[in-house]
Amino acid sequence: MTDITLTVNGNEHELDVEPRELLIHTLRDEMGYTGPNVGCETSMCGACTVHMDGDPVKACTILSVQADGSEVTTIEGLGEDGKMHPLQKSFQEEHGLQCGYCTPGMVMTGVGFLEDNADPEREEIREALEGNLCRCTGYQNIVNAVETAADKMHGATATDGGVIEEGGD
Amino acid sequence: MAAEEADTSEGVRSIDADEVDADEILGSAIERREDPALLTGDAEFTDDIQKRNMVHLSFLPSQHGHARIESIDTSEAEAMDGVIDVYTHEEMDVALPCGFQLEGLNDAPFPALASERVRYQGDYIAAVVAEDRYTAGEATDRIDVEYDRLDAVVDPVEAVEGDAPTLHEECPDNVAFEWDIGNEDETKQALEEADEVVEIELENQRLIPNAMESRAAVADYNPSDDELEVHMTSQNPHLHRVLFTLTIGHPEHKTRVVAPDVGGGFGSKIHQYAGEVLTAWTAKRLERPVKWQATRTETYLTDAHGRAHSTTARLAVDEDNSITGLDVETYANMGGYLSTFAPLIPTYLYGPVLSGAYEIPAVCCHVTGAHTNTSPTDAYRGAGRPEALYVVERIVDKAARELGVDPAEFRRENFIPPEKFPYETPVSHPFPYDSGDYEKTLDRALEMVGYEDQKNRQAELREEDRYIGIGVSHYIEACGVAPSQQWSDWGAGVGHWECSVVRFKRTGTVKVHVGTSGHGQGHLTSFAQIAADRLGVPYENIEVVEGDTDEIPEGTGTYGSRSAAVGGSAIAKSCDKVIEKGHELAAHQLEADPEDIEFDDGEFHLAGAPEESVGWADLAAGAYLTGDVPEDMEPGLEATTYFDPDNYTFPFGTHICVVEVDPDTGEIDVERYVAVDDCGPQINPKIVEGQIHGGIAQGLGQALYEGAEYDENGQLLTGSMQDYTVPKAMHVPDIETDSTVTESPHNPLGVKGVGEAGTIAAPQTAVNAVVDALEPFGVEHIDMPLTEERVWRAIHENGGGD
After folding, report:
1. B15 lies within 8 A of chain A by CB
2. How many other CB atoms sit within 10 Å of the CB of residue B19?
3. Which residue of A has its CA nearest to B14?
4. ipTM given for this complex
């Protein structure tokens, strides 16, 4: 067993883990963050996607001992002051989820993508979601949700080329 | 009813429920109430459940497709730290029953744990219980099985030829069943007399459902009250409950089955599997909570696979382009054992829709169900209807080409005209198609895609050595399953009605209990819309409950596009019964005759005097609190309905796909995909749109990417997501949708069901498009999936290309 420190959603935790333990299992089983889900064991599906030190990662590909000292954000830590992140809100508005199993991972990937891409094309969004599988939605409304959130987060481009400042959601 | 115009360029626009007027709630594309929990991680899926003192179960599946088990040595596993016990057939000797006893079925036993033989890679041999999931998995690897390998057979045609290895002594030549439907003599005559006979041989390849959540169960047994509780990934908790009773013998009235949040099903979570049964059995044995979470690779081996048909079909056509007969012969691959509903899928869910949308006087079909050393097959989204409509729409398309008729026009000429409904086909007896107006969806789809422009474009591009194709397909399907008596006569072990309780609380809010079990379909939203509309109670004052056998008295479940048509109808009828009681109560409270009471917008008032009224809150108060009810009436304000449909419902639609095919690489680019579907009145158009998108994505997945493959030893070659292409975001095009509305006369809502339509329509739409593109190369058919290699070979086998 190995001692590690993990900060999850802003809360620091000291844990004792087996070297073989995957981060996704530590988060879910030991710490109770059941938001991210396990959908495969070949790192294809992305249901386990969280942010680690600011970037989306698949928590099934990380041993907890490797995550020692890092800051992790799960879907549970995404909103602020009890309000959903604009992307979460967009998923709701655009019906970007059905069973919801892929959704936490899909949203975390989307949030990471939008932090670096203010005005993405639909094809770019689809490529960015390559690591997240969804079997229910056919992806179209997910792409719509990311597009809509981009507008909200970064402002739409006005017809004269200027930026329209978005107020509220 | 709200009239949400479908904006086909941007899809359906959803709306916050708070912004919808009460009289428009039914038919409004309101945002789902399920979403906040799912979006924030609050939702509870089965593996999220933790119980004190819980242990973990892991299974050892057979390594081989066909083998005798010489010995099983569990000693090393048992000796490991943290391992509690290891079970084999010696401890647990239960068989999984086949719940559809087709006439003449050769019903071989399906042991939950294999004893002397394994018949598919995935057949469980042992179960390990350990303190944690890692130890359970590791211990499973330490079980030593000595196999005596046997020859295997994986193809259903080969399996029944007579010299293939035999799987079950109950099934000579591996035949599970032989089944016929239709008017065979007339069909043979039609084929003999036809001006033109078109033939096609096609494969409907094996698919793996791949719901994003793998199957799981948490079982808990309390010895002091003998209660067994199982949380599991189920599409039908009540059915799973009775199946637990039949297999492990625990009394049904002391068993609770709960479907928590469930991450998709697509049919794969209907059936009874060894995994959940063994989880429940182990909980009883150990008197501790037991969790089992299947791994993805485990579900690839053990989830019931879909499709897996080999078919030859012949179509008879007269010189005036009318179809006069269709003969279909199918070999259905049942896998190593019969799964719970398996014999139903390639028979009564397949044969009866083989006339498609067309007036065909003679149709017959023969199906051979064959056992092979592969995973058992059973319902997968569409369950029999995709297989049937694929045959119909491929052969009709081929016929149009051979006759030199435009494929859209050929279909139009043969459509069942609207005035002929209800329309019984030679194979649909006793269920006539309920209603339809096929030209409407065809015309709208042709308009949306710009059919003539596309054809002109195709001709121009061919001059430039570029190949686009326009694929048209039209489907009907039969869903809203099912009229119970007929299904029972055909072999179903359970009725297919649906049950709903609508109950007013004392303070005038409403709880709706229904026996369906959603896993992504948004029932908690759409069913509340039904009740809000019917009762005139504000949407936010209604809660819908599903998926718990303790909370819902009885039910059947969610599959076969039945939840709205059968479950929604049960809810509507319960609402109507409560309204009836409301009339009596209101009359009593208003001191009037019930005949003089009118009900509008949630208020009961005197006819002609709307200010003399009482609302539901007043009635509920009277019914529960003050006992202020008429003398001959009981207190309470609720109603229960068991709704048994008297027919299927028959949704329909036209899909058109435009592709470009690169003849040098075989690559297919889907440029446009247009879908015009008719599922009757739409309770929530945004949810309908989502179902269409998802179904089409799976249908295109089948057409272009998916396919489970075995080698000749019964080894699953496509053993993980690295080998089996579950479509990704860039694999699915933007889909343009529109709809028409043709009500079904068979249920109070007029709804038809939409969950499976996309998977039923899309495969042939895509294949028709690619074949259309490659017509200059003489390509007449390519089997799915249309990988680059297959497309390239098809072009070059015909002497075309470089």
Report:
1. no
2. 9
3. A93
4. 0.97
